[in-house]
Description:
By secondary structure, this protein is an alpha+beta fold. It has one helix spanning 101-121; strands at residues 8-17, 20-24, 30-34, 55-63, 70-73. Helices cover 17% and strands 27% of the residues.
Amino acid sequence: MEYKIGMILDGTITGLQPYGAFVSLSDTVQGLIHVSEVQAGYTKNIHSLLTVGQKVQVQVIDIDEYSKKISLSLRTLEPQVQQPNHRRKKYFTNKNKKIGFESLEKELPVWTDEAMDALLEK
């Protein structure tokens, strides 16, 4: 089987290290889930999330052309959840109060004329 980036595959955890989990994709092919790809956010202890022999569904995120090492991810298959601490960006412009760039565009000619009149009076 030829593996490609983006493929979603079934595998079995064959080994755990502090830096990641080894996954058997077939009898002859293994990949690695780096600890940063196990879940969204920080993973303190990979052993608390995965066990040897566990069946997992993973996504191929990289294949090294030279060494043919396959990088896998569990995180990319998680549903995307918006963080509760996420704050919406606040803009100075407020369409309800009619302030911002649009009102500047309307007022600029008036201000320019007032400034020119003031200069001419001097």
